């Protein structure tokens, strides 16, 4: 069996799955329950001067019948007295000495930072995570993302922290910034041992159409919150890649954002995370999801022949390139498998209205056909197709040529004028604009009238 | 022991005749509507005789616009609620759902349709109304799916409409002819009340039109007449003993069942004659009324039955036994039915012939004849110039519903010889447009 244990910047954990600093790590009861279920570590709900919260704290984004593909909260850091939290950290560490307990911290002054670091380490925390990411409630008080958005301030505070910290220090970064590598570099300059990302994204998760208020609604009103859940994974992965590929950051990264199952975790790891943190999925489905995550990760490692997590941390990074280094000679075209096609014609209408009019309908069958000369290989049809492996994208170039935008630029072979002969779509066929009229009109007619309009066409 | 015990109370009746397509909850509707793929020029629309824009109304349900969904449905089909429940969706919209080709359960279109329409009916939501009066007056004979649909469409075009109905309630076979497990009387009548409230046509109940003077009176009073009279009584078989009590027509049996529910009595052993959907209904109903042995006898083979496969499955599911390749030769009995004498049949080159010497008796306490309905030719022949085809169906233009007497229009069973509620509803809209075109000349 592969070894799932990790040593993340000096913090040891039986597996790479940590609960992120959030409501699931609000108490010793929860963290102990999670460890008992199989989680490898937990970043405690952020400690500081206890807050007062509002009632009605979370909002969700549902997609059709699927609940919480996105989630936001307007809850603040821990509202429990520090001593209660510290006592429970101590209890958890005593019962689970091999598991990782990381104290998330957020305070204001240098004095406070020093005090709380010593207290957390005295309680037995294996490491510290500095919460410079919370995008609501705390930032208005000059903490959280207010720090993460100001690299100089961030650097100063991390320097204060490093003055007294004896355990590894992780700086948690906010995505609410143009270039996340800037605060990451500031953390590095200040001597931090690791970074974690992303914290939540500033968001309004929805508006109540009857109360005219954003969710979650607090007495008829709402505020911007922090967005997380499956929907944010793509944003997290990109920021993770930015930090992991950066030539000077060179810090272990704990990946956070939209991790719900082993696949999500592996994606984070392949882009450079050496531990992963989970919150929304645990809030949605409970701690029991860890069994699927561990099992899937193990199976993946067995099949790939990986013995340790480190074997594949960042393994996809060499294949993440700037656009202008991609091969312009590579060509794929869509292919519809008529044996699998169920005739929904979503590919037809998607290509017709949303892409390049490269799919046509055929008489006598509901299976559409690809117009190869029009197909640019955009993938859209294969993405909308509801049938597994019905539309595949087949390579049509011979695979012998490689030419990037950079190379074409160097060779002075790129379009430079508005009507340049070298325009990529210059010889691409598009229908006449007027040919569009009437194609959809029958759909606006009810019942028989619609059928009669079609039969007249 | 029979599958069902004889119901003695309304509650037991409701349990034995539990709805095949019960009303969805909001949650169920959300989950089911979420599955719809929103096909381009969806096959379900094409398969629907009334051409409802199904992906559109499902999308509307999914986004919480149930009222809009109901409007989409009713714009195409005034019997939207009833059709959701009584349509053979398995062979229409749901049978055409592309999910079938993926071996995934098709979308429950019928139930979604009833879900949306039930909402507006329950809330009596104003969706439609009569058009500005245009001075035209149309008489509609028959308050069934054809007549009511035609009246709704005519009212929306501004006509004054009076419906003459022989029975005491509207909706025709939706109440009087459909199996009770498909739709309840309350559901069918609620939609009728809703439509009448929306469109404001007049219905004269207990007002059969049967004589020439009555026809002349209608012609004098109205600009056009729509014949939505459906079919007549069960055809006689000409068998000895056919007139014994307890030997009844399926149409009459079902109509009585719909009216009196558990008060109808079937004996412990019932023989149903026929292989169509009505035969399946009657057999199922007899079983659900507590009959211990229900035999479905058909003169050809199982595969040649006219009934939909799912209807036969439904009958088999409640314990009905099939008896194939047999023809009835006599209803046996002195004062009441005691059995049916059958002769075995063989089919050679499509021709059914009796096998000599193969006669046998199936003892029973009741016979239900589901062997087709007679056309109402005696009445139709009173109308001057009205032509019927060789099968007794009124001849009419498919695009206007106009008969060979230009002031008469028709649709539904009287014209198509017996089809679904949805066919009548769809064709009646076309006929109403035909009347409008005729009177606008």
From TrEMBL, chain A:
Keywords recorded for this protein, A-Z: Iron, Iron-sulfur, Metal-binding, Oxidoreductase
GO cellular component: cytoplasm
Reactions catalysed, as given in the entry: 5,6-dihydrothymine + NAD(+) = thymine + NADH + H(+); 5,6-dihydrouracil + NAD(+) = uracil + NADH + H(+)
EC number(s) given by UniProt: 1.3.1.1
Location of the 4Fe-4S ferredoxin-type domain: 332-361, 366-396
GO function term, MF aspect, one: dihydropyrimidine dehydrogenase (NAD+) activity
InterPro entries: 4Fe4S_Fe-S-bd (IPR017896), 4Fe4S_Fe_S_CS (IPR017900), Aldolase_TIM (IPR013785), Dihydroorotate_DH_cat (IPR005720)
Top-rank lineage group of the source organism: Bacteria
Enzyme class at the top of the EC tree: oxidoreductase
Subunit text: Heterotetramer of 2 PreA and 2 PreT subunits.
Task performed by this protein: Involved in pyrimidine base degradation. Catalyzes physiologically the reduction of uracil to 5,6-dihydrouracil (DHU) by using NADH as a specific cosubstrate. It also catalyzes the reverse reaction and the reduction of thymine to 5,6-dihydrothymine (DHT).
Family to which this protein belongs: Belongs to the dihydropyrimidine dehydrogenase family.
Protein name (Swiss-Prot/TrEMBL): dihydrouracil dehydrogenase (NAD(+))
Origin species: Hymenobacter ginkgonis
Automatic annotation (TrEMBL), chain B:
Entry superkingdom: Bacteria
Coiled-coil intervals, chain numbering: none
Dihydroprymidine dehydrogenase domain ranges (all copies): 15-122
SUPFAM superfamilies: alpha-helical ferredoxin (SSF46548), Nucleotide-binding domain (SSF51971)
Domain FAD/NAD(P)-binding, chain residue ranges per copy: 137-428
GO terms, molecular function: iron-sulfur cluster binding; oxidoreductase activity
InterPro entries (UniProt xref): DPD_II (IPR028261), FAD/NAD-bd_sf (IPR036188), FAD/NAD-binding_dom (IPR023753), Helical_ferredxn (IPR009051)
PANTHER family: GLUTAMATE SYNTHASE [NADPH] SMALL CHAIN, GLUTAMATE SYNTHASE [NADPH] SMALL CHAIN-RELATED
Protein name: NAD(P)-binding protein
